[in-house]
Amino acid sequence: MNLEQLTQQTIEIVRQASSFIQQEAALFSRDKIEYKDLNNLVSYVDKEAEKLLVAGLNALLPEASFITEEGTTGQEPDPSALNWIIDPLDGTTNFIHGIPVYCVSVGLARGKELLVGVIHEPSLNEMFYAWQGGGAWCNGKQMKVSNVESLADSLIATGFPYYKFEKQKRYMYILELLMQKTHGIRRMGAAAVDLAYVAAGRFDGFYEYNLNSWDMAAGVLMIKEGGGTVTDFNGGDNYLFGGDIIAAAGGHKELVEVIRENF
């Protein structure tokens, strides 16, 4: 499998889905929202973009299965298989409210081994991508994580889960601690964008719990290929299907310590 060539082909498929999303952004109205839960929203745009991605990627690599946010394939996911891991529109709530921070995220993994990652942020026309052993890139320029070596010099991104609120007090306490130990905290509303920005050296770290594999797969590969470190909240490797993640440059160890001790 030529991963560089496969990445370039994946980029074109992702670009088509992004074009559809941007066309619909100009026409979208809030009466087209569907609710998975009170604050977990979905639209026809998510579903149609996912169908476009699945059709293109299935033709590209027929032997791969799919793990997708909207479940349009009807497949029962097997995390140990060769899988395309797709979030057709990460940042749906931003999209619905006209906030231009959202993206298409596509990863390819064999089990937990990440092979390809592509994230396109259509509002800025930034295409982030990586393949195993090939580095991380944005619009043709190689990316590296920041050279920040301490938590005190770090700008950190996070997100707020839309369920399991019983952990929210501890999570907010960690937020309070990090506000006093860093350059600041940012909440963009799209985890895949956050991870791409860590890979690009814009953010120095990111953490969140209750994420899904489609939020993380592509961005995690970019961070690793860009020289960063990725773990779960305990400092282990159970992040892709485990739900919680800490991804950072030089301040990773300190970030793990703060979160592990208080969560």
Automatic annotation (TrEMBL):
GO terms for biological process: inositol metabolic process; phosphatidylinositol phosphate biosynthetic process; signal transduction. It is an enzyme of class 3 (hydrolase). Mg(2+) 1 binds at residues 69, 87, 89, 215. The keyword Electron transport does not apply. Its cofactor is Mg(2+). Mg(2+) 2 binds at residue 90. GO terms for molecular function: inositol monophosphate 1-phosphatase activity; metal ion binding. Keywords: Hydrolase, Magnesium, Metal-binding. Its EC number is 3.1.3.25. It catalyses: a myo-inositol phosphate + H2O = myo-inositol + phosphate. Belongs to the inositol monophosphatase superfamily. PANTHER family: INOSITOL MONOPHOSPHATASE, INOSITOL-1-MONOPHOSPHATASE-RELATED. This is Inositol-1-monophosphatase. It comes from Dyadobacter psychrophilus.
